[in-house]
Amino acid sequence: MNDKNRLFRTTRSTDPEVQESPIHFLKSLSTSENLFFIRNHFPYPTLNSKISLRIYGEVYKPLVFHFEHFKQMKSKSLKVMLECAGNKRSKFEPRVYGEQWENGAISQGTWRGITLNELFKYTGIKSNVQEVVFEGYDFGERPDGKHASFIRSLPISKALHSDTIIAYEYNGSPLSFKRGGPLRLIVPQWYAMASVKWLKNIYLVEKPFSGPFQTDDYVYYPNKTNKDNAFPVTTVNVNTTIQQPLNFSKLGVGEHEIKGISWSGKGKIVEVAVSINDSEWISADLKKNSQGYTWTPWSYKWKVKHKGHYSIRAKATDSTGSTQPFRAYWNQKGYGYNAIDTIYINIE
Amino acid sequence: MNDKNRLFRTTRSTDPEVQESPIHFLKSLSTSENLFFIRNHFPYPTLNSKISLRIYGEVYKPLVFHFEHFKQMKSKSLKVMLECAGNKRSKFEPRVYGEQWENGAISQGTWRGITLNELFKYTGIKSNVQEVVFEGYDFGERPDGKHASFIRSLPISKALHSDTIIAYEYNGSPLSFKRGGPLRLIVPQWYAMASVKWLKNIYLVEKPFSGPFQTDDYVYYPNKTNKDNAFPVTTVNVNTTIQQPLNFSKLGVGEHEIKGISWSGKGKIVEVAVSINDSEWISADLKKNSQGYTWTPWSYKWKVKHKGHYSIRAKATDSTGSTQPFRAYWNQKGYGYNAIDTIYINIE
């Protein structure tokens, strides 16, 4: 049988299309285009064959760029992981509403594009700019009945970061429509709602932008019954997914490889520790990390002599000292779940 | 965008291959071949190009049939649903080990094949026969380290039922290898472990067959710590899956169609009732049922005026009076889950 036929994304919604990556079975450090997770907020937009990107607002010279302009500018290539802010939402207790992602709202690969710095060389930037606003071609009706386009902003410092790019290639091929092509923002280290697809407009503003995807969704609301103490979703939390074995699977006595991936938007992964049945934490072997903003694969050799039920926990620590909590930080909309990952295994 | 690209099976395991059908998004009463769930116990077997099926044991004339013989015999066509005995296993509380199926270990379509009755005309049957044993070409190592082939038996009465067939076509095409072709047993009304794939041998025995897939797996063990009061998994329980809306989704005020499917191995579905926030049970509209052993689609128009959290429950009753329990019958290996289906919706 052909192995290529064996991996599929998990369909979570068809309208709009939402699909999960089969993360437990991915071996490559680069997610193939057809297995990359999909999270749309609206139906797919209709694009003209000749796509344009307008830059305006607090610039000296508003401009409209066409796709061919980008291919003539200086480009850079970056390995970047994207994780949906709702990844693992289904694990929150109490449960929260929204897409019931398991572990697969995360994928990574190599993006080629141009920096915002490069673009702004043509338009200039006024000194009063606070934020850069990115509007996608996608729009539609939200669950509450309101109509909106998908629009998000970045602080000017993040927008001008030398690794924030407007991508037009993924893994060496033109960025496909379903990936957000022809032009998509890629914001390393932030949750993926920041990486706006189907870029249509970029405008620079002198005060904080507000909009449903900026100041209503993608906000942490830590209280159950009100919106006090809210703060925006930005950087990816330090996190781990045990890929193999699968949760609640049955194995025999002997040696088993526990494998997983860990990542953080704040820094490099410096340690992953594993604990069997809540005994001491033992360091796993970190695979040599690839360059860029990617997850770190790790493995741990587990020798098990006796039949019975086992818990296996894994937690990562990054170079800033951030580590995973035993219990995730609960919030109304279910963002940023990053509790220590735990699986249960029966040895038969 | 091409709609054909939007539905995928969910990969639950790659070795052996196990995949779930996207049951929440299926609209057709006939599951297309590429969306039919897959539950293998072992790696795919290697088959000769010239497949044969041997019939022996308590028969008057043991025979070997080749595939072309089947095409010359009188065939029948039947619409049959297959449901894995472990469908919905992930919902058991306390959790149980094994494949963590959600709702998609169920699919259906039209099978063409010949009855066992027809086959046994050629071999005869001795009067002392109690069971008919079906062996597939698939074999391998079980989690406990023991090696086995996939072998299951049927009581002679079920084997001789006029709708128990050896199928060689699915939805009008030759039965594909991944579906168990070229020859697969189809046992309507029983959980799908009975519908042995890649048929190799059929032998008739004068006493009950025992084997790991007959008397160890596919047995209900209702006690947590021992194997007392065990009984075999056979007929499909009356059951319901709410297809739309999805659990924990967000909707607006207004009218929503609640859609689902109900089925039973014991009889026809005669009623499906829906309860909102545990108020009175109201009958849903049953769609005209298709012939054969298939699920019954139903729908219910839900008018909701107020924002807030809602529970929606659905339960089916079949023509024998069997209905779904509030809490599923817990058993060690997690078979036959059929609790009243419940989803939670937030109206925004």
TrEMBL record, chains A, B:
It comes from the Bacteria. InterPro entries: Ig_E-set (IPR014756), MoCF_OxRdtse_dimer (IPR005066), Mopterin_OxRdtase_euk (IPR008335), OxRdtase_Mopterin-bd_dom (IPR000572), OxRdtase_Mopterin-bd_sf (IPR036374). The keyword Metal-binding applies. The keyword Oxidoreductase applies. Residues 41-211 form the Oxidoreductase molybdopterin-binding domain. Keywords: Metal-binding, Molybdenum, Oxidoreductase. Residues 234-339 form the Moybdenum cofactor oxidoreductase dimerisation domain. Its cofactor is Mo-molybdopterin. PANTHER family: SULFITE OXIDASE, MITOCHONDRIAL, SULFITE REDUCTASE. This is Sulfite oxidase. It comes from Evansella alkalicola.
